[in-house]
Amino acid sequence: MTHFGILCPTASGHINPLLPLGKELQKRGHKVTCFLTLDGEEMVRAAGLDFQAIAPDKYPKGTSAKNLAEIGQLQGTAAVRRTVELVTNSTAALFQTIPQEMRRLGIDALIVDQVSPSGGTIAEKLAIPFVSFAGALVLNRDPLIPPFMTTWDYNPSFIGVIRNKIGYKLLDSLTRPLNELINQQRQEWGLIPYQNINQRYSPLAQISQQPAEFEFPRPNLPAHFHFTGPFHDSSTRKTIPFPYEKLTGQPLIYASLGTIQNRLQSAFNAIAEACADLPVQLVLSLGNTDSNIQITTKNALVVPYAPQLELLTRASLTITHAGLNTTLESLAQAVPMVAIPITNDQPGVSARIKWSGTGEVIPISRLEVPRLRKAIEKVLSVPSYRENALRMQKALQKTGGVKMAADIVEKAISTGQPVPSV
């Protein structure tokens, strides 16, 4: 029996994919403890896993909601910059408190989200193995691949590589305080400073919930990188009430801007107005319970939260911020998309939606009702979008999912050797 610690941001988009993996490991006789701020406790307890609060004095309950409300009003570089600032602060708190807590609890190994950059360093400090998990877009750096925060297309030409390198220079400038903090801590702990971002990730196994077919060509990934496909599991999620009796039977458009960038009144208005005169029913999930957003169009069913997995089985189209979870959950049901990327890795996910032919993309800066309505009508009427979504659904069905991921984790930790992909 191994006592696993899970380390990821306290955000549903990162927690939801890791809970099924934790449950699968628990079923196999292991103990699993999730390290999150207090706002993540309810989700973890509902899934039946153990919980340990990160710096509860510094991050009391409600902190995440406050931070998300702030970020939810931002977009583009401003949102990335604020996100980096918050991650830097939380990373400092993790370094100060978590190694002692993990020692006290007897943690044997870690599963670390790629967006939790402290995890690998903490594992090295404790001399325990760790596995990396890409809960968002694959973050491994490659000059052939555009930076995650751009909508740039895949272009492996000389010009494309130069463009990508310039983008990474910008990203490095935004994340410099975080990178400096991590290397400073590594030096204090007697660890060799990182020379590049990819050194943060596990030398034993790296796992992505994307299928390989939904990623740009990646010949330079390490041999121990695995595309397992997603771990969607409604049983690990809190039950969300929904007025199913109000569904009309018209083609259903499900719209959500996620649980972070969800305070943009103009974006919700544009979605509602774009659908207002179409022969469809719009279900619009606001992604929070304290929103002041008001939507009054006749065919819109507006809810604070929605049972997303269930509604996608009925949907003809998803309008999404291009969060990876919503994107993969849509493709699992062969539902094409119109993506409205706002910040962080959403532009990169939307670039893959466009590249895979499973939807259209309208950056938030170009969002207008006529443009959005045209994109909705195009995706609903042109068969290739649905056909490509079906192709991606089949690719997802062939992946090993959570059982494959658990196999990889167990093998990596039990052998202490890299687990090569097949």
UniProtKB/TrEMBL annotation:
<dbReference type="GO" id="GO:0005975">
    <property type="term" value="P:carbohydrate metabolic process"/>
</dbReference>
<protein>
    <submittedName>
        <fullName>Glycosyl transferase</fullName>
    </submittedName>
</protein>
<feature type="domain" description="Glycosyltransferase family 28 N-terminal">
    <location>
        <begin position="13"/>
        <end position="91"/>
    </location>
</feature>
<dbReference type="InterPro" id="IPR004276">
    <property type="entry name" value="GlycoTrans_28_N"/>
</dbReference>
<keyword id="KW-0808">Transferase</keyword>
<dbReference type="Pfam" id="PF03033">
    <property type="entry name" value="Glyco_transf_28"/>
</dbReference>
<dbReference type="InterPro" id="IPR002213">
    <property type="entry name" value="UDP_glucos_trans"/>
</dbReference>
<dbReference type="InterPro" id="IPR050426">
    <property type="entry name" value="Glycosyltransferase_28"/>
</dbReference>
<dbReference type="GO" id="GO:0033072">
    <property type="term" value="P:vancomycin biosynthetic process"/>
</dbReference>
<dbReference type="Pfam" id="PF00201">
    <property type="entry name" value="UDPGT"/>
</dbReference>
<dbReference type="GO" id="GO:0016758">
    <property type="term" value="F:hexosyltransferase activity"/>
</dbReference>
<dbReference type="GO" id="GO:0008194">
    <property type="term" value="F:UDP-glycosyltransferase activity"/>
</dbReference>
